[in-house]
Amino acid sequence: MEQTFIMIKPDGVKRGLIGDIVLRFERKGFTLIDAKLMLVSKEMAEKHYSDLKEKPFFGELVEFISANPVFAMVWEGNDAVKQSRALIGATNPVDAEIGSIRGDFATDVASNIIHGSDSIVSADREINLFFRRKASFAS
Ligand code: IDP
Ligand code: MG
Fold first, then answer.
1. Is 12 helix (H, G, I), strand (E, B) or coil?
2. Domain hosting residue 55, numbered range
């Protein structure tokens, strides 16, 4: 079993997509471990996206994530990190397959609805940042 950090971004929350997205993760067979609707501070958004701080869109991304509530979640399942990324789809919705979350609900990379950890190391770091505890992984 593996845990991953999934966050419905402010655009997804505003559009009323929490229920649909939770349903997709449940149908896939993952287990919801923790969840909360929350405001992300600028400092927290900067930490969360620290690997992107050299990108030209970093400031805009941090502003966007911290402007309105997000829905933060921890999901558990087999290969949860990799399989969640498949449910979510490619970063740019133009490249995301229809049937994936970004493929079905988004058209623009700057408002692509949802975040999912990209590795076990990121998942652990992000779960700790948002829920103040370590992820649990099979040894
Ligand atoms: P990911 O969310 O699929 O892991 P990352 O490369 O980690 O993609 O980028 C984080 C977030 O930054 C993306 O989900 C997207 O919201 C935003 N982003 C990525 N590339 C661009 C861009 O070229 N313009 C604006 N925003 C971007
Ligand atoms: Mg990423």
1. helix
2. 2-131
